[in-house]
Automatic annotation (TrEMBL):
<dbReference type="Pfam" id="PF05133">
    <property type="entry name" value="SPP1_portal"/>
</dbReference>
<dbReference type="InterPro" id="IPR021145">
    <property type="entry name" value="Portal_protein_SPP1_Gp6-like"/>
</dbReference>
<protein>
    <submittedName>
        <fullName>Phage portal protein</fullName>
    </submittedName>
</protein>
<feature type="region of interest" description="Disordered">
    <location>
        <begin position="423"/>
        <end position="442"/>
    </location>
</feature>
<feature type="compositionally biased region" description="Basic and acidic residues">
    <location>
        <begin position="423"/>
        <end position="436"/>
    </location>
</feature>
Amino acid sequence: MNKLEKYIKDKYDGAPYWFIEYVQEVHNQTKVNEIYELKNYLEGHHKILQRQSYKYNGKDFTPRKIVLQYAKTLLSFQKAYLLQNPVTLTGNQRVVKEYQKVQRKAKYDRMNMKIIDRLLKYGEVYEYVYVDAGQVKSKLIEGDQGFPLYNEEGDMIAFVQAFVSDGIEYYTVFEDDVVTKYDNAGGEMRMISRHANLSGLPVAYVNAGEWSELEGRSELQDWIGLLDNMEDLLSKFTDSFYKHHNPIPVIVGQQLKGEGLPKDVVGGGLQLDDGNDFKMVSNQLDYQSFESVYKTLQQALLDISSTPAVSMNKTDISNLSEVSIKLLYQLASIKAGINEQYVREGMEQRFEKIRTLLEYKGIKLSDDEFDTLDVTFQYAMPSNDKEIIENLKTLKEIGSVSLETVLENSPYVSDVRMEMDRLSGDNVRNSEKQETSENAIL
């Protein structure tokens, strides 16, 4: 009896469709509801839209409901800052060559962008690596469809994917060596397929929360409170602006009796007694206080999200050195480093699974070769490319670094192995030309 069978027997009394009960457990449904709310928020369904109409001057007044989609901009910045430049594979030449083939055919650069997007938005996402028509590929499983099963030691022993389509419930149960699919088409749960699982359980990418490293937490949850207050402040100030242009006429002094002015008179006026006064009274707009509070909230939002103000056009800059740029983006780089660790952990598991699948295709990599494989991230920080190239040139001329290291750190090269092959081809052609010229002279 393996770990999963023992777990099912102890907790679900060996029920054949135990996964249905597992998906319906409170902690799983809580996660589904939280992700649903986050998706709604990103779609523009904000708290400010729930403001109710009210009476003002005896009439129904519909308040302004200004929605700020700052969250999407902040998420896009974090995503692009980390992975706008494709990651670079480094290590043993043979290993890198095989993995680059897989990466290009499976379009893993696009997959990586989707992974960091879901990770930042919803706190977790899952990737299943498999073989299709002889090619290694990956399938992304959304956080509200993926339900990993962990034992008491925190090890994943099974994984359930569950979703509903056209009123039919679909379940896919991943075990270490087999994948089984179920649905309830026709009203009863049934098994529709079962096949061997060559790569093992899906890879979990989790933005670890404070309560558990196994449960993800969205970046949005730290920002929504500030954004709600910014929307509320801006909407209410806009209301007061419109009310300011709807003043109330006030006459100070003795009220004169009489028939008053004819209603059809044009260009008429008021004649007041001595000491009387007439004025239009309106609310005073304290825009300085509004501006101060709004800017404070906005700066807090940038600080908490680790977003440089300069990237959001909130600061004027000119003639900055390389060091000054690094200081401005230091907080963003720290945050990107944390996100990189979450993505890197998942990528390392992906590499292990790709290695296993390559062995089924007859491509075996030794432990020493595989251990050299690494991935390099190049953050999308504004930089002085000319200065970087000059520094690399100096290091190469004094023999401190190899050509491969120069290419790895060059802002113009993303595929180091291909560039090395091209340089080797250029060297061969140059040698052949030189030999031809020497023979012609002789």
